[in-house]
Design a protein that fits this description.
36% of the residues lie in helices and 26% in strands. It is α/β, with parallel strands linked by helices and 429 residues long. The protein has a domain at 8-69 and 187-250 and 348-398: 3-Layer(bba) Sandwich (FAD/NAD(P)-binding domain), CATH 3.50.50. Strands 3, 4, 5, 6, 11, 12, 13, 14 and 15 form a nine-stranded mixed beta sheet that branches. Strand 1, helix 2 (38-49) and strand 2 (54-57) form a beta-alpha-beta unit. Mean pLDDT is 90; it is low at 416-429.
Length: 429
């Protein structure tokens, strides 16, 4: 029986989790969605709102993957940086992508209100600079976003200010983004599942897809125990594409990351650390990202491994990074530590598109998945229902190169890149 990893999120589900059946026998629908994380559930909700008959299939449990065990941070922009999109593709596409990223953040707040989801939402986030050079880049970027997109929610924090807001002396300065937020991701995911069920989406768990067959007039999705005949499908598996015969796996690189959660901070530590309850993301290549839970525990992640092996070394690296940022927390008990897979694209921009007029997909969220997965589902649903939209065309303009040499070569390639970037972090380059 599949269970959630032993995370803080799973341990503190107040009402537990509703179970859903295994897909059995033969079914027909307008849209079959493969993958029960944020992007798959979002696609299901939006398709159902359009009156389509929807079946959603999850290999494990809804919210089992990255959607239910991530850092819970909500940011706009893309990992690559919107200014790089402008340099390569022009201001028109940059403005379109910026608008999509803003809509992604807004959509989370809209759904929390619409479906009355209790997911411990809190507002505000800090980008913290690990070198004076990166701090100067932050200031330039904040000015760029204000002038180019009229984004006025960014405030520059000098070293003294960032020391106070973060509770660490590690950083050279930072940017406070009042448009950022953080939440309990598993509660949010399961709230979306409840919404999908209320919209009459047919939900199936523990149902691994083995084969996808495309025919002239329909798609056939075959699991161990059943089969779905659908007019169209949406593949929303992100880092868990292995084995699916869709032909899109080479556009992403799955990598492993760890998050730890401490015991609750005492009153004195609470006054010193993140006093305004902002989340934080810093500028290391393997960035540290952290926040306080509603119970005042430190939730801290960042160590990334490219071998797809969830190893003890990643746990040690994560705890070492926590101690570096917060030496005052090194005597706290680590109550939970868990790992999982995220998916990167080569250019760190999500890959959202269509393989044919019947097969749609979204993956490679590259660390910005909490926000972008939701809007990805909305984009997929619009294209499934009414044909290609301007939003999908925007993502298609950003060309995604395949990782060279297949899975075996992808790993050492990114290990080499990662090692070089870590050296740059060490020497504050």
């Amino acid at each position: 029986m599949v269970e959630y990893p032993d995370s803080y999120y799973a341990a503190f589900l107040k009402d537990g989790k509703k179970t859903y059946p295994v897909l059995m026998d033969d079914h027909e629908c307008d849209v079959c969605i493969i993958g029960g994380g944020f992007s798959g559930i979002s696609t299901a909700i939006e398709c159902a709102k359009k009156g389509l008959k929807v079946i959603l299939i999850e290999e494990n449990l809804f919210g089992w993957g990255a959607s239910g065990r991530n850092g819970g941070q909500i940011w706009n922009d893309v990992s690559w940086g919107i200014e790089l999109i402008e340099k390569k593709y022009g201001i028109g596409l940059a403005q379109k992508m910026w608008g999509i990223s803003q809509a992604a953040v807004n959509l989370i707040h809209e759904r929390i209100a619409e479906f009355n989801i209790d997911c411990e939402i809190a507002h505000g986030g800090i980008h913290a600079a690990t070198s004076s050079k990166k701090f100067r880049e932050y200031i330039t970027n904040a000015d760029y976003k204000l002038k180019t997109f009229k984004y006025d929610k960014l405030t520059v924090l000098d070293k003294k200010e960032v020391d106070y807001e973060v509770g660490s002396q590690l950083y050279y300065g930072g940017i406070l983004d009042k448009g950022a937020a953080h939440l309990h991701p598993l509660k949010y995911a399961l709230g979306l599942v409840n919404a999908a069920e209320c919209l009459n989406v047919q939900l199936y768990e523990n149902s691994s897809v083995k084969v996808v067959n495309e025919y002239t007039n329909h798609i056939e999705v075959i699991t161990n125990n059943g089969k779905v005949k659908a007019k169209k499908i949406a593949v929303c598996c992100n880092a868990y594409l292995k084995g699916l015969n869709i032909g899109i796996e080479n556009k992403i690189m799955p990598c492993a990351t760890y998050i730890l959660c401490t015991e609750p901070l005492n009153n004195n530590l609470q006054k010193m650390i993140l006093p305004n309850n902002y989340c934080v993301s810093d500028t290391n290549f393997d960035l540290n990202y952290y926040r306080l839970s509603s119970s005042k525990r430190m939730i801290f992640g960042g160590a990334v491994g490219y071998s797809l092996k969830i190893v003890e070394g990643l746990k040690r690296r994560t705890q070492k990074q926590l101690n570096k940022v917060y030496p005052q927390l090194q005597n706290l008990n680590i109550d939970y530590i868990w790992g999982g897979l995220i998916a990167l694209t080569l250019n760190r921009v999500p890959d959202i598109g269509m393989k044919s007029d019947k097969i749609f997909y979204a993956h490679g969220f590259s660390g910005h998945g909490v926000a972008f997965t939701g809007i990805a589902g909305k984009i997929l649903a619009s294209n499934i229902f009414s044909g290609k939209t301007l939003e999908l065309e925007a993502f298609e303009r950003i060309k995604h190169k395949s990782f060279p040499g297949g899975r075996l070569f992808r790993m050492p390639l990114l290990v080499t890149i990662s090692s070089m970037q870590k050296m740059m972090d060490i020497f504050n380059v």
